[in-house]
Amino acid sequence: MTEEPLIQHILRHIPLDEAEKALVLSLFSEKQLPKKAYLLRQGEVCKTENFIAAGCMRMYSTDANGQEHILTFGVEGWWISDLYSFFTGAPSAYSIDALEDTRLLQITRPALERLYEKVPRLERFFRILLQNAFVAHQHRIHQNLSFTAEQRYLEFRARYPLLEQRVSQKHLAAYLGITPEFLSTLRRKLARR
């Protein structure tokens, strides 16, 4: 029998015995989101940490002109949440929606605290996740400040080779901070090389 993707994910970082696996699964709840459905809307409080078991999502903000700015995408085996809102209870500056039909495993803050108490090793697991997320966001900020649009696009393709086929050109352009038209021009230029 294949283990739940969440358990497989955790086991890559820390060991769990059968009772601990059962506890983890008992404290997470499953949520199915159809394509285009919202997990979180800008201004709401993020009440869950979300593990993506299947599907593709995006986290973004919308500015005063209605322009979307995608902070991150998320696919199978990734986590997606507004951690600032989740930990502080402040309204979120972001929206999170499904780009494909998506299956999530969610945990609330009280359930997460219970998990830390019952399985202290999981604090290490979540620390590793937060460290990795911090490093990735720091790298993304550096790219946005220092790289040309072409360099950002090539880096995206190198880091996430399968993701480009799963997101629309409009969404990829919003992630890269360019227009869809400029992305088309950039792709044509690179194809000619």
Automatic annotation (TrEMBL):
A Pfam family the protein falls into: cNMP_binding
CDD domains: CAP_ED
Domain of life: Bacteria
Domain Cyclic nucleotide-binding: 16-115
Annotated InterPro entries: cNMP-bd_dom, cNMP-bd_dom_sf, RmlC-like_jellyroll
UniProt cross-references to SMART domains, sorted A to Z: cNMP
Protein name in UniProt: Crp/Fnr family transcriptional regulator
Native organism: Chitinophaga lutea
